[in-house]
Write a structure and sequence with these properties.
- The complex is a heterodimer of chains A (290) and B (310).
- Chain A has a two-stranded antiparallel ribbon.
- Chain A has 290 residues and is mostly helical.
- The longest helix of chain A has 31 residues.
- In chain A, strand 1 and strand 2 form a beta hairpin.
- Chain A has 2 domains: 189 residues, no CATH class; 71 residues, no CATH class.
- In chain B, helix 2 crosses helix 12, helix 3 runs parallel beside helix 5 and helix 12 packs across helix 13.
- The two termini of chain B are 29 Å apart.
- Chain B is mainly α.
- Chain B has one domain.
- Classes of the chains: A mainly alpha (290), B mainly alpha (310).
- The interface between A and B is large, with 39 and 45 residues.
């Protein structure tokens, strides 16, 4: 039995970790949750974001600035990717299931192998003033890198929630997930709206990628474990709910942190996948499902 | 009738090859190529016929391989028993995964199969008896039947398994099961309404597909004389086992065979001449190219070419 103190510490760390998981899942929550695109390549693009941040930060820029600079680039990548997906699969509407999945799975592996070929299998890190030191409050220590990630996570979630509820395009994106035909009747072009949403989802991923490499070392094959974490958060949240994503991230973060403390780090990967499988088996529409 | 003669002749050919005086490397690489024939064929039974995309191929391979290890370590079971045991347990896993299809379709099913891989990997990593994360060295028994080396024997065993799986897939394709699975792929609701017992045939397909993958994985520990979780549970198996049938063509049993023979051979050449990473890239790039440009795979291309030349 673990002591209450340790448990408290695990929960605190879990909250920080959970916000981080929520932030890396936001893009998937839009692309898969709202748009129903089988976006298995999301974690691979996340790692790509981390590596681009790594490259940019060699010039001496702060990793967060790098992430922000990468956002427009990723926005364009996202738009191109959706356009391509739409032209080849959705418009022909022929058996999108198997082929769409195979397409994104293939893209994920291509990104991963290209990263291995260019950077090797070694772990990569970035340096910044806030990496390596911790904030000490009483007897608890919070690594600054986790606090930075926490800040970015809250910022991104708030931004997206506001965007989806206040702006015309944001509402249109939500609408396109519910009823494409109705949107067309309202005089908006569903394909353009989806393209925009996919661009945003991928752009968010760039900043999340920067956050990932701030939090810890990154290696090319890491996208595989993040398939579990990101999909777990999105499925747990119920597809496409932004605030649900934050709550789901917290649930995952706290569970992982507690399991790590009680059973050891080697059991950690099973937590996200276990929760995911449990959720899919019992309630695939998620905790806050529509 | 004609098929069984061809299958028998192919088998005799493999038998002849494995006692002939050829370079040992042929059998070492040939084992892997034939293993992919089994995997691609097994994947296609569920993925190609029924349209359920299984990303969890390594889970089934690993269940086969680790069952073999446990059987070998505990009662030093002979290879045949290891393969049968691996097949049975992987088939059971298939049945359980099949139950997921009750609720899950499309990407949800696929992601759930990925989850199975990682959960089992974590369990094996923490299981001391089979070596945990560091792996386990195994000594091959001296039993060779009448082959010169153990690799030759394994090559022939895998050839038998490959021909067996292809025959099963061929039988399924034109049977009640295959027709039912195709109906499920086209429209599950319509199939159910027309009296197809969709759940039953999905469960059967998942079990057979899983068992065949387990059978393909069971000789692996003996082949490498070593087992280790990271390599066994590697998702690279998924991309290959799914890429090969899609590239070959999923509509007919020969598609996965063509895809596997072609791609696994290219992979073996690339692994030897360039690097291990690149062979995954080959499958990934070809897979994306094929799903975009030639959705019906090589079989579709051949069909088109035949029609246009008429």
């Amino acid at each position: 039995m673990i002591s209450i103190d340790l448990l408290f510490e695990a929960v605190l760390f879990g909250i920080l970790l959970g916000c981080f998981y929520a932030a890396v899942s936001l893009g998937l929550s839009v692309a898969f949750g709202l748009l129903d695109v089988p976006y298995v390549a999301h974690p691979a693009l996340l790692i790509l974001g981390s590596y681009f941040t790594f490259l940019l930060s060699k010039t001496g820029l702060d990793p967060i600035i790098c992430g922000l600079l990468l956002m427009p680039v990723f926005y364009l990548i996202g738009i191109a990717l959706y356009r391509f997906y739409y032209e080849t699969f959705e418009r022909r509407s022929s058996d999108t299931g198997v082929r769409g999945l195979a397409f994104f799975f293939g893209i994920a592996f291509i990104i991963e192998v290209c990263l291995i070929l260019v950077f090797g299998v070694d772990q990569r890190t970035v340096s910044a003033t806030y990496i390596g030191s911790s904030l000490e409050i009483g007897e608890y220590r919070f690594p600054y890198r986790m606090l930075v990630a926490f800040g970015i996570a809250i910022f991104l979630t708030t931004l997206l929630t506001l965007y989806f509820s206040k702006t015309f395009n944001g509402r249109a994106i939500k609408a396109v997930g519910q009823d494409e035909g109705a949107l067309r009747l309202m005089g908006a072009n569903p394909v353009k709206i989806k393209q925009l949403a996919f661009g945003i989802a991928t752009a968010v991923n760039a900043l999340a990628g920067a956050m990932l490499i701030i939090v810890g070392p990154v290696e090319p094959a890491m996208d595989r474990i993040y398939i579990g974490r990101t999909f777990c958060v999105v499925v747990l949240a119920g597809l496409g709910s932004m605030s649900g994503t934050l709550v789901a991230g917290l649930i995952l973060g706290i569970s992982e942190s507690i399991v790590m403390m009680t059973f050891g780090a080697s059991w950690a990967p099973a937590v996200s996948f276990g929760l995911l499988l449990l959720m899919l088996g019992i309630r695939p529409q998620g905790l806050f499902g529509r | 009738m004609k098929y069984s003669i061809y299958a028998f002749l192919t088998l005799l050919g493999f038998l002849g090859l494995s006692v002939m005086n050829v370079n040992e490397y042929v059998f070492f690489a040939g084992f892997v190529i034939l293993q992919f024939v089994v995997l691609a064929t097994a994947w296609n039974i569920l993925g190609g016929y029924a349209g359920y995309v299984n990303f969890g191929v390594p889970a089934f391979i690993a269940v086969g391989a680790y069952t073999a290890v446990v059987l070998f370590k505990s009662i030093s079971a002979p290879l045949v028993v290891q393969i049968i045991g691996g097949g049975i347990l992987a088939g059971l896993l298939g049945l359980m995964v099949g139950l997921l299809t009750l609720k899950l379709r499309g990407i949800f099913f696929s992601i759930a199969t990925v989850a199975v891989v990682f959960i089992l990997e974590t369990v094996v990593m923490n299981w001391r008896y089979v070596g945990g994360a560091t792996g386990l060295q195994l000594t091959r028994p001296p039993d060779l039947w009448f082959f010169d080396t153990y690799t030759r024997m394994l090559f022939f065993v895998m050839a038998v398994l490959a021909i067996g799986s292809v025959s099963i897939a061929r039988y399924i394709q034109d049977s009640f099961l295959g027709r039912g699975l195709r109906a499920v792929r086209d429209s599950e609701e319509a199939a159910e309404c027309s009296g197809v017992p969709t759940l039953k045939i999905k469960l059967i397909a998942c079990t057979i597909s899983g068992a065949l993958m387990g059978v393909a994985g069971a000789p692996m520990p003996m082949y490498l004389s070593y087992i280790e979780p990271t390599a066994t549970f590697n998702l690279n198996y998924s991309i290959s086992a799914l890429g090969m049938p899609i590239i070959g063509g999923t509509s007919h049993w020969i598609g996965p065979v063509i895809g596997a023979l072609l791609l696994a051979t290219i992979q073996q050449i690339v692994t030897v001449t360039v690097s291990n990473e690149l062979n995954v890239l080959v499958v990934g790039v070809l897979l994306v190219l094929f799903v975009v440009l030639a959705p019906d795979g090589i079989l579709g291309l051949i069909k088109k070419w035949k029609q246009s030349s008429k």
